[in-house]
Specification:
A: mainly alpha, 74% helix, disordered C terminus, B: alpha+beta, eight-stranded mixed beta sheet, four-stranded mixed beta sheet, 14 strands, 49% helix, extended
Chain lengths: 201, 444
């Protein structure tokens, strides 16, 4: 019977797994469910803690809170619920750590971040008018060599991060960082040149 | 990495981004879906705070940690369920026997005897059958799973100690049945690392188990129902092994390619448990087991492996001809992620000697002290001081001096010059892991 359950555990929906855990309390069930969201939760923790080891510990700690919460709370949809739990955990940790920052200040800070990153500039795609394209080309020229190379490969040659890393021999992370910084610099450059439509990104 | 369940296909664009498979179209799609998905939006934002990090390796390691955690407490509740189930089976069996016996004594005398025998004989032979079962299973497992519960527990703790003391993280909760928890952890780790090529073995084992279970089921069940026996040493062994083979099963079939095995240790030769071994440019990875060993079946075309462990230097090694690759990671004993050393080496054909990651002769602690004492912030007068990051790539010569210092990053030239100066005037380095390393300076 148990073997049968285990075989199908990966095919079950979130809600089925939730129910299964609520009935049986088998941590492996909860673990399977949580594992589906590790990438997301880890990302959220990185956002708040800005540090790998703390973020990793955060992911583990959120799991511990789930062990109890899932049993006692009514959860309609797991995914959005988990998001809130993860976010709250991080905020609580930060608040504990740093007594000088009030909760309001912190939310304000994170909101500001969200606004800032609400849109990510995607050259080529985001500028369709000729004038903009021209300005963009100029801006790309001003980028540091590495960023320029990566941005061009990514946006004009349609290469993936991995492909670029393979050609330059750099680590994947460096390529990612180059493109990200390149984008930021482009955005600044475009803002300066006044070609941005209404700062809509 | 595990395959994504279908109902979670929402995640696929993010995974592609993490592995580096994403093109601009993928990234755009990702950002678009983030607009309507705050969870995803937060996650991406988080990952973008550290674009340089090897997120895939981190997530892989994290999942292994999580699985270990989830297995730990399986003990109590699980056994209760198991015992209950077995009890039910016994009741049914008893009813059946009763029926046979009472309905037609003579005609089914033989059958009744057969049916009854196991139940009656159970108390006497149960331990025998249990031992038999263990012996059968131990065989394929022995290579992969050395059993030293106590030593392992110790090393496990050591592993977690490397992380900064984070109040909320429960140190590995030791379930009431101490021994069992340890064992389970044992196998979990071993299975993790050996998953790809142990699949066949696992499948075979499973098959054998079910055959055996069928054959000896009545005896087995009787033994399990006896609480004394179920708590005994042999039983949990049997149970936990059977179970730990399950998580390994759903792993994707290993792609054809060479299999690399080896061991990851720290400076003093102690095994690093749970270190991540990742094939670059793919989602193929492994976690080292209790004695620091790993085994990784690569897809064709993989040329580089990345070894990482929190608090240790990340080592990137190009594959040579040998399929054996032992690695020694230098302790970076950093709480903050400010120092990242990535080394690029080449595996040698002379196996057993471990490849040692590059390090300053006196270690990183000393080196950081040196940097702290000597660093001159180029814009020290500005308020606030600008934060700049410079990564310097360099070659370690045979005599330990550094050459070909190449600063990278977007920092102004003055910062780059300062970073280069610090390295050039600093202590010598040593390494057997090829010659190129990079060091990241953070000016604040």
């Amino acid at each position: 019977m148990l073997k049968f359950l285990r075989k199908n555990i990966t095919e079950k929906t979130d809600e089925e797994l939730l129910q299964l855990y609520q009935q049986g309390g088998d941590l492996e069930v909860l673990g399977t469910l949580y594992e589906r969201y590790v990438e997301l939760v880890y990302g959220v923790c990185l956002k708040f803690f800005k540090e790998k080891t703390k973020a990793e510990d955060g992911v583990m700690a959120v799991f511990e809170t789930l062990v109890e919460k899932v049993r006692t709370q009514e959860i309609r949809q797991f995914r959005p619920w988990l998001h809130v739990v993860a976010k709250n955990h991080c905020l609580m940790q930060l608040r504990k750590k740093n007594h000088t920052i009030s909760f309001d200040e912190m939310t304000a800070a994170t909101q500001a971040e969200v606004v800032q990153s609400a849109g990510v500039l995607h050259p080529v795609d985001d500028f369709e008018e000729d004038g903009q394209q021209l300005a963009l080309k100029k801006c790309i020229e001003t980028l540091p060599a590495q960023q320029k190379h990566c941005v061009q490969q990514f946006y004009y040659e349609d290469k993936s991060y991995k492909e670029i890393a393979d050609t330059t021999g750099d680590a994947l992370g460096l390529v990612r960082s180059n493109i990200q910084n390149g984008r930021r610099n482009l955005r600044i450059c475009m803002e300066k040149s006044g070609t941005m439509v209404n700062g809509d990104w | 990495m595990k395959t994504v369940p279908e109902n979670n296909s929402l995640l696929t664009p993010l995974l592609r981004w993490l592995t580096g498979d994403a093109t601009r179209h993928d990234e755009r799609a990702l950002d678009a879906s983030a607009q309507s998905d705050p969870f995803l939006a937060d996650a991406i934002e988080g990952y973008r705070t550290a674009p340089e990090a090897d997120h895939v390796a981190d997530v892989t390691r994290l999942k292994a940690r999580l699985r270990k955690r989830a297995e730990q407490e399986r003990g109590a509740g699980f056994y209760l369920m198991r015992i209950a189930a077995v009890g039910a089976v016994l009741v049914v069996a008893w009813v059946v026997v009763q029926q046979f016996v009472f309905s037609d004594k003579t005609a089914v005398a033989d059958a009744a005897q057969m049916e009854q025998m196991p139940t009656e004989a159970a108390p006497a032979t149960s331990s025998d059958s249990a031992q038999f079962a263990i012996a059968e299973q131990e065989m394929p497992e022995t290579a992969a799973a050395p059993t030293a519960p106590i030593a392992q527990q110790k090393t496990l703790n050591k592993g977690t100690d490397a992380a900064p003391p984070q109040a909320n993280v429960p140190s590995p909760t030791v379930a009431p049945a101490n021994d069992e928890a340890n064992k389970q952890a044992d196998y979990a780790v071993a299975d993790q690392a050996a998953a790809p090529q142990n699949e066949a073995v696992a499948a075979e084992k499973e098959a054998r188990q079910s055959r055996q279970a069928a054959a000896a089921s009545a005896k087995e069940e009787a033994a399990k129902a006896d609480p004394k026996n179920a708590k005994g040493k042999d039983k949990p062994d049997f149970l936990s092994k059977k179970k730990s083979s399950a998580p390994a099963k759903p792993a994707p079939a290993a792609p054809s390619g060479r299999t690399i095995t080896g061991r990851v240790t720290d400076d003093s030769g102690n095994p690093l448990i749970g270190a991540s071994v990742q094939a670059t440019g793919s989602d193929i990875g492994a976690i080292t087991n209790v004695d620091g060993s790993y085994s990784l079946t690569l897809s064709t075309g993989t040329e580089t492996l990345v070894f990482s462990y929190t608090g240790y230097v990340q080592l990137q090694i190009g594959l040579g001809k040998s399929d054996r690759l032992n690695v020694q990671l230098a302790n970076n004993d950093m709480e903050l992620s400010e120092v990242v050393v990535t080394a690029y080496g080449q595996s040698d054909d002379e196996e057993e000697e471990p490849v040692v990651s590059p390090r300053p002769v006196d270690g990183f602690k000393q080196f950081r002290q040196y940097v702290a004492d000597n660093l001159r912030h180029p814009e020290a007068n500005k308020q606030p001081r600008p934060r700049q990051v410079v990564r310097v790539r360099f070659t370690i010569e045979d005599d330990g001096s550094l050459s070909n210092l190449l600063p990278k990053g977007n920092a102004p030239q003055a910062y780059k010059d300062e970073a280069v100066r610090l390295l050039r005037e600093g202590p010598r380095w040593k390494s057997t892991a090829g010659t190129t390393a990079s060091y990241r300076f953070v000016f604040e």
